[in-house]
Amino acid sequence: MTRCFGCAVLVAAFVVFRVALLVSSYDANTNWEEPVFLFGALELADAGVGQVLDYQDDLNHGGSVVLLLLAVPWIQVMGTSLLALKGLAILWATLTLVAFVAVGWRHWSPRVGLWLGVCLAVASPTFARLNITLVGSHPESLLPVALALDAYLSWARARREGRPESPWTAFALGLWGGVAMWISYVSTMFVAPMLVLRAAARGGRGRLDLVGLGWVAGIMPWLVQNLWLRPHGAGMWRTHVTSDGPPDWIADAGRILTELAESYGWEAPAGAWILAACGTALLALTVSLVRGRDSETRDRRWELLPFAAAPYVGFLMLLAARISPSPGEGYYYARFYVSVQVALFWVLVLVAERWTRSVSDAIVAALVLVLAVGTAAAQVPLLGRGARYAANLEVDRSKGCMVFGVAEADRAPDWTSAAVRLGGLRGERCRDRAFAGLGWGMAVRFLADQDASAASEALRSIADVRRRYAACGGFNFILHNARSRPSPEDLGRVKAVLRAACERPVK
């Protein structure tokens, strides 16, 4: 009863702090992509949720699809404003917290569940801010990851106890693993070790076909979107991995370690101590699995191995992707590290549970309380940093139209298709903003390939003069505010091209 009360207090404190953070520091915890969720929800409310794949912000993950499906009924009940919609992020984060606490409690011990909950609730100020941000990708994948972990650990326990595997457990492992990978590719760091271990286990091959069937069902929305509706989508991520030239593995590894430490919200030396503790715990867990001298470690090897492997896999994924922060992203960039954070939390909690097994609950509770209070204190400065947001549906929707235009510029097969898609949006102001976003996307492409003739041809292909002017405005804005600008000679040449394409002077 006491432990259940502790869980209830933990969840309530989690929700209260997130709500306080949202209403007192709205302006400090937002990003430029958020209006597109309100825009998409309003569009789907009229067009029907069956059109949701046409409004996702990125072909490579389904986090925005999940948020949009929930946002349509949510705004009808809670109101059509970004402030109300951001409450949906708190709901999803709370469900994620409950799911992870339940998995730790059910398959390990109440201590593991509570400790993991404390880590997720207070250990990372950056994670706290992401809980109230409409991200649309990586944090959303943690909920199906928890459900996939539950199915995997249920299979491992049945195997250890010599019981037959439930058909639903096998299907659920594949299903939730596939959904997690569809929502965010980063969740592969959790899902891949589980699927590989499940397939490799001797005597555990029964119902493996149901695991594969569940995985196909979970990943199906990605397959439909990227192989059927927009076939070019499947290859888009290749450009992220290959566009920056040959990798510098040592420099990239150092950068990732630095950014991972910063993603916890602490500067050095605190961040270095966090990484050192996590690295030591991960090494200890891995060595205990390899040696496996005590019977309990041998018996629970299949349950521990995914947690030992996940941080390694996640680090290698980040190293291969070579994703660099963009100016102005701030804490929002740390979404790429959320899954690695949670994986390291798991490792620390499992190792701590093993080392403190003989310690009384009272001493452990005191240690957890000290840890929670100390880390929560780091989050107090996040409160009261500005909440000047005033709901304005027309303004917020028009901002969403622009972001949608930027997204369409990246995911459309060609500029003509993008222009046709954006030309069908409702409202003149919305279309103007969307074409400004399209010009933004064209400029980003130009800065990457320096093909002035292609940029000019793309702008001239927009027959409607008003929309072409809007696209030229977006193009010119990025040209003058990009982090890596063209040389003065190239800039003059591009301006001449834009003058001809846009039929008006460009500043």
Beginning-to-end CA distance, first to last residue: 69 Å
Average pLDDT works out at 84
Number-wise, the strands total 0
Order of helices and strands: HHHHHHHHHHHHHHHHHHHHHHH
Give the helix level as a range of percent: over 70%
Structural class: mainly alpha
* Molecular shape: globular
Strand-residue proportion? under 5%
Oligomer: single chain
Structural domain count: 2
Sheet of most strands: none
Short description:
By secondary structure, the protein is mostly helical. It contains 23 helices and no strands. Helix content is 72%, strand content 0%.
Notes on the structure:
The chain is an all-alpha fold. The protein folds into two domains: 2-382, no CATH class; 393-502. Helices cover 72% and strands 0% of the residues. It has helices at residues 2-24, 35-47, 63-78, 82-107, 110-122, 125-130, 142-160, 167-183, 188-200, 208-229, 236-242, 249-263, 270-291, 295-299, 301-321, 338-355, 361-377, 393-411, 415-423, 428-449, 452-460, 465-481, 488-502. Helix 4 packs parallel to helix 7. The longest helix has 26 residues, at 82-107. 44% of the residues are buried. The mean pLDDT is 84.
